[in-house]
């Protein structure tokens, strides 16, 4: 996730209790400088607030649920080589089961939808930070 913000802002990573009452005194991480990139690598909810007085209470806070990555879809097996006797042969038509292995799994499609949602939340938070700076 990336936060872009003006000099009157910063980003603090807090626990749920700090998030709920906008208290950054127990922050596990603090960032300033206007451009903060944070890798979302731990499964669970991460809580971000702007610790500038009044900003978090005014809505400058974001809770981001981080889900485990969905497994990648299975890769199809390679096609068979032509017979050794040199005679051309026709490839059999793909069966329905082999076609389904090349389409994305429902869980992968859902994961992509969740990532789009997180991107939109990040964009909303970014726009909020920019508008208030």
UniProtKB/TrEMBL annotation:
Residues 70-107 are annotated as: Disordered. Coiled coil: none annotated. Residues 82-107 have a biased composition (Low complexity). This is Phytocyanin domain-containing protein. Pfam families: Cu_bind_like. The keyword Membrane applies. InterPro entries: Cupredoxin (IPR008972), Phytocyanin-like (IPR039391), Phytocyanin_dom (IPR003245). Keywords: Membrane, Transmembrane, Transmembrane helix. It comes from Brassica cretica. The keyword Zinc does not apply. Residues 1-68 form the Phytocyanin domain. The chain crosses the membrane at residues 109-132.
């Amino acid at each position: 996730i990336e936060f872009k913000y003006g000099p009157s802002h910063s980003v603090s990573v807090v626990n749920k209790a700090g998030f709920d009452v906008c208290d950054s005194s127990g922050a596990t991480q603090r960032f300033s400088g206007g451009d903060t990139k944070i890798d979302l690598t731990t499964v669970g909810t991460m809580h971000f607030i702007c610790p500038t007085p009044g900003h978090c209470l005014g809505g400058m806070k974001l809770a981001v649920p981080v889900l485990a990555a969905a497994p990648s879809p299975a890769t199809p097996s390679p096609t068979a080589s032509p017979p050794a006797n040199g005679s051309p042969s026709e490839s059999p038509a793909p069966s329905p089961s082999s076609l389904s292995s090349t389409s994305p799994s429902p869980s992968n499609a859902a994961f992509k939808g969740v990532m789009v949602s997180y991107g939109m939340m990040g964009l909303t938070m970014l726009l909020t930070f920019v508008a208030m700076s």
